[in-house]
């Protein structure tokens, strides 16, 4: 990083509110859609001072499956975020950004629609914080602990895990109640004393 | 071990039954003077369980608790091990909670937790395959269903053996002898014969000294005399009937459970049957807790692996000698880990000069022995009433029989649950007989003001 100033959270979340329609357009998948996400990513990496994607690297941002639609859309939104001058002027974040776009968004994309990272304030902040964390940065004025806590609070992945846990608990309670009502369980076992 | 004479249904109930054990079971079952058996049940003990029971038997004698202020380290370790598996523990013990320093602040559990939050108590990941359940009698005001494991039930046998040995009784456990009869006297209950694997196929029977179970009293007398159970367990009501029916046996001991045993009845039983009569303090949720010490001074804590304390209304341990509610912490039942579980019973701790380091329980106020009267004057047991109330989602109840014989029943259903008051009224009036009067009310706050008295009689 050449920039010595920490990133300002509000500026980055505001940038997401201004995400152009092109970055929300349909990604190219199996011949349909018009946005070639691999090309957008490659341009970004150059703008960040890095190298364009190789043919092999580009395949990461191509898909023939509609299951990848939201992930590719989220990558597009994230590229818009990373085009902010703060990152472009930093000059040495291209590799970290590429890693994040390639591997850091899949779990989130499975849980939250890409549109939400533009339209919903909490999701905007979540995406910005995730991006900063991926680059080893934190918002101006925050300690590492504060930044981590805030990200955990916002985390869709964490929230989904909690929901899954709750669902598992409900299922477990159902199994337990059913077991307790089984005839064999109710027959019980002989007791020598009566309590 | 395999035995072709044992029917598959019996083997399913008694996986370890031997041919000799089955022969004894048949002898009891088909005895010409046997009562009308109305239930089949086994011990469900498998080979692997026997080792657990044996280890427990050895530990019980070797690891007598020296007494401690606050829970001993192994109880604290056990709680920590359960923290992430038992939702209720996790909810009530904040991360980083110092069990040793802040024990008095650990929230208590109660019967309501078991009644309405059992899924938060059964540990995550525990194998439910062998779960069995017991309905509590409902004589304590909260009818609950308690999950159990067969090996936990089998581990109660060494506890009973230990107490018998403290009174000099050493029953012979084998397939040639009937170890024990469990005796009650109720309008309706299950009765069955059994053999126990942990007692080397020794015989057992649960019998009911109620006229409808026997053609005549003489039948019961001869049945007892012929099978000669070596010791008797039961409740004071059943024991009183043994005196009235002049049951002609000389057991080595009688163990009284379920409700309070009066000193007067104890003395009469000892005179009638020529054996020690032992007051045994146990509950379905906790298992055995204490027994009357042979020296006649208070009740000794029985299991080595539970922590018993006496607490005030706020859950703070009271000082020695001060009366409070008995609370139990421990986890022998894999389906019901208890964390400062309020038993609903009251007493006080006192150290006995020359006795063990652990204080004994004095002035135990457990379940009161209450007998109601039907319209025709015959006895009605709280157990019979509890059986009816168990049919409904009742969290807690209070039944009072007034001086004129009428009954007032207050019931507290779980939040949002509907209870058919009219149907309960009809069933109870059937139990109490023609001409009886029962008034049923819903009280959603029942029990919140302190200990309730589930059964009370104002009859003189």
Structural topology:
The complex is a heterodimer of chains A (195) and B (460).
Chain A: H1 9-17, H2 37-47, H3 55-59, H4 69-82, H5 85-90, H6 94-103, H7 106-109, H8 116-119, H9 121-134, H10 144-154, H11 156-181, H12 183-187
Helix pairs in contact in A: 1-9, 2-4, 2-6
Chain B: H1 8-13, H2 19-29, H3 47-62, H4 73-83, H5 87-92, H6 111-116, E1 132-135, E2 145-148, H7 150-166, E3 178-184, E4 192-196, E5 202-208, H8 217-227, E6 231-234, H9 236-244, E7 253-256, H10 263-273, E8 277-283, E9 287-292, E10 299-301, E11 306-311, E12 323-330, E13 338-350, E14 360-365, E15 372-373, E16 379-380, H11 382-389, E17 396-401, E18 407-412, H12 421-432, E19 438-442, E20 455-457
Parallel strand pairs in B: 3-5, 3-6, 6-7, 7-8, 17-20, 18-19
Antiparallel strand pairs in B: 1-2, 4-5, 8-9, 9-10, 11-12, 12-13, 13-14, 15-16, 17-18
Helix pairs in contact in B: 3-7, 9-10, 11-12
Features:
heterodimer, A: 195 residues, mainly alpha, B: 460 residues, alpha/beta, Rossmann fold, GMP Synthetase, Chain A, domain 3, 3 domains, eight-stranded mixed sheet, four-stranded antiparallel sheet, 12 helices
What's the gist of this structure?
Chain A has 195 residues and is mainly alpha-helical. Chain A has 12 helices and no strands.
Please provide the ordered H/E string of secondary-structure elements of chain A.
HHHHHHHHHHHH
CATH homologous superfamily descriptor of the largest domain in chain B: ANL, N-terminal domain
Distance between the termini of chain B: 57 Å
Q: Please, how many helices of chain B?
A: 12
* Overall mean confidence score, pLDDT of chain B: 89
Assign a percent range to the helix content of chain A: 55-70%
Name the CATH architecture of the largest domain in chain B.
3-Layer(aba) Sandwich
Largest sheet of chain A: none
Major sheet of chain B: order of its strands? 4-5-3-6-7-8-9-10
Whole-number average pLDDT of chain A?
89
List the total number of helices of chain A. 12
pLDDT < 50 stretches of chain A: none
Helix-and-strand structural type of chain A = mainly alpha
């Amino acid at each position: 990083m050449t920039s010595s100033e920490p990133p300002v959270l509000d500026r980055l979340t505001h940038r997401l509110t201004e995400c152009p329609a092109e970055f929300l357009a349909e990604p190219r998948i199996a011949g349909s859609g018009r946005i070639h996400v691999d090309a957008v990513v490659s341009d970004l990496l150059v703008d960040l001072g890095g190298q364009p994607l190789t043919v092999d690297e580009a395949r990461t941002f191509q898909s023939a499956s509609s299951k990848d639609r939201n992930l590719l859309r989220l990558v597009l939104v994230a590229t818009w975020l990373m085009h902010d001058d703060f990152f472009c002027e930093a000059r040495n974040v291209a590799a970290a950004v590429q890693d994040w776009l390639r591997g850091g968004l899949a779990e989130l994309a499975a849980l939250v629609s890409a549109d939400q990272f533009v339209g919903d304030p909490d999701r905007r902040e979540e995406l910005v914080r995730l991006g900063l964390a991926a680059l080893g940065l934190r918002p101006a004025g925050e300690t590492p602990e504060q930044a981590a806590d805030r990200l955990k609070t916002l985390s869709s992945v964490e929230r989904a895990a909690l929901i899954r846990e709750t669902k598992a608990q409900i299922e477990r309670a159902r199994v337990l109640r059913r077991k307790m009502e089984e005839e064999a369980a109710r027959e019980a076992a002989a007791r020598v004393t009566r309590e | 071990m395999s035995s072709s004479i044992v029917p598959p249904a019996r083997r399913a109930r008694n996986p370890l039954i031997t041919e000799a054990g089955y022969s004894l079971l048949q002898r009891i079952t088909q005895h010409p003077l046997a009562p009308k058996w109305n239930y089949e049940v086994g011990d469900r003990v498998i080979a692997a369980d026997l080792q657990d029971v044996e280890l427990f038997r050895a530990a019980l004698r070797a690891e007598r608790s020296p007494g401690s202020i606050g829970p001993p380290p192994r109880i604290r370790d056990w709680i920590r091990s359960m923290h992430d598996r038992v939702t209720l523990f996790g909810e009530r013990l904040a991360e980083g909670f110092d069990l040793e320093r802040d024990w008095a602040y650990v929230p208590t559990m109660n019967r309501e937790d078991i009644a309405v939050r059992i899924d938060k108590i059964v540990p995550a990941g525990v194998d439910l395959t062998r779960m069995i359940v017991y309905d509590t009698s409902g004589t304590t005001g909260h009818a609950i269903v308690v999950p159990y494991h067969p090996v936990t039930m089998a581990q109660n046998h060494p506890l009973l053996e230990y107490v018998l040995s403290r009174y000099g009784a050493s029953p012979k456990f084998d397939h040639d002898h009937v170890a024990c009869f469990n005796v009650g006297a109720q309008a309706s209950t299950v009765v069955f014969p059994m053999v126990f694997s942990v007692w080397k196929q020794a015989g057992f029977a649960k019998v009911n000294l109620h006229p409808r179970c026997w053609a005549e009293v003489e039948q019961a007398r001869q049945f007892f005399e012929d099978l000669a159970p070596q010791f008797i367990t039961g409740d004071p009501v059943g024991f009183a009937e043994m005196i009235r029916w002049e049951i002609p046996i000389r057991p080595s001991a009688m163990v009284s459970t379920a409700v309070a045993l009066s000193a007067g009845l104890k003395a009469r039983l000892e005179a009638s049957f020529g054996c020690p009569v032992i007051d045994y303090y146990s509950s379905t949720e906790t298992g055995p807790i204490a027994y009357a010490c042979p020296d006649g001074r208070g009740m000794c804590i029985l299991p080595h692996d539970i922590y018993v304390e006496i607490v005030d209304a706020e859950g703070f341990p009271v000082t020695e000698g001060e009366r409070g509610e008995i609370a139990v912490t421990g986890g022998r039942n894999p389906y019901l880990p208890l964390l400062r579980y309020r038993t609903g019973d009251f007493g006080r701790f006192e150290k006995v000069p020359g006795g063990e380091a652990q204080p004994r329980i004095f002035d135990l106020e457990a379940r009161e022995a209450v007998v109601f009267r039907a319209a025709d004057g015959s006895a009605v047991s709280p157990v019979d009433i509890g059986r009816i109330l168990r049919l409904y989602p009742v969290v807690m109840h209070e039944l009072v029989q007034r001086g004129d014989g009428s009954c007032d029943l207050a019931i507290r259903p779980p939040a949002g649950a509907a209870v058919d008051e009219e149907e309960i009224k009809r069933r109870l009036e059937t139990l109490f007989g023609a001409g009886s009067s029962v008034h049923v009310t819903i009280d959603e706050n029942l029990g919140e003001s302190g200990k309730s008295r589930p059964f009370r009689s104002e009859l003189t």
